[in-house]
Amino acid sequence: MVDYKGKVALVTGASAGIGKAYATELAARGCHVIVVARSKDKLETLAKELSSTYGIRAYAIPVDLSKTFATRLLAEQIGKLNLNVNILINNAGFGTHGRFEEISSEREQDMISLNIASLVDMTHQFLPYMQQQKDGIIVNVASLGSFQSIPYMATYAASKAFVLSFTESIFAENRHLGVRVLALCPGTTKTEFFDVIGTKEMPGGINGTPESVVKAGFRGIDKGRSYIIDGTSNYWLAQSARFLTRKFTAIMTERMTRPASSKTATSIPTSDKSR
């Protein structure tokens, strides 16, 4: 079991959803927390609540991590606070839903920047200190979609496939260096996301909660896993891709995720829905 008391944890996408649940659970376990997202008001409110409830230090740093050099500036701000990050929860990101050609190229590029480039850069920024200390935790929030294509969420699923592959490689590189690295793969989670994108039919149903996802993340770290999937049904859904052709899986998923209107493309931050 990991001793979290007194450690400094950095949680991105912390204003709602999985990020907020992660920050709350880390604080409950005695961590000082740095919460990061774009919403200044929500972050400051959360930081005050965590400090007063759990008696830890909480810092709110509003920043848009999709912007160039944002991670470097964040690291500089953390340095000015004389803090070193022991635990990194890379949760920030967002997804889009709709026909690929109807989603703006700019929005897709923003998603790639946040879901992939920012996550990689955050790992670059904070991993070396953990290696020096021979102690640390990195959790990269991937998705059940990391294991298969998702029509109408094509770029999102591909970005999460990157997160899974990247994380497993970093896990292997650091497994003897005292740094635990985990890809946390939630399935569909009960938040606002599916109301916004206009579909209730997703593989496996919509069953998870931010709290259940976070519990899975802690289990994965305790067990020294390279990845963990939230929920037994989600696990078997991911494994089913091994026994079905990729073509068949893509076609069946397309039928489940087809937008109610082919003219509607939507997006929402991962911190608000997290999957």
Automatic annotation (TrEMBL):
<dbReference type="InterPro" id="IPR002347">
    <property type="entry name" value="SDR_fam"/>
</dbReference>
<keyword id="KW-0560">Oxidoreductase</keyword>
<feature type="region of interest" description="Disordered">
    <location>
        <begin position="256"/>
        <end position="275"/>
    </location>
</feature>
<protein>
    <submittedName>
        <fullName>Oxidoreductase</fullName>
    </submittedName>
</protein>
<feature type="compositionally biased region" description="Polar residues">
    <location>
        <begin position="259"/>
        <end position="275"/>
    </location>
</feature>
<dbReference type="GO" id="GO:0016020">
    <property type="term" value="C:membrane"/>
</dbReference>
<dbReference type="GO" id="GO:0016491">
    <property type="term" value="F:oxidoreductase activity"/>
</dbReference>
<dbReference type="Pfam" id="PF00106">
    <property type="entry name" value="adh_short"/>
</dbReference>
<comment type="similarity">
    <text>Belongs to the short-chain dehydrogenases/reductases (SDR) family.</text>
</comment>
<dbReference type="InterPro" id="IPR036291">
    <property type="entry name" value="NAD(P)-bd_dom_sf"/>
</dbReference>
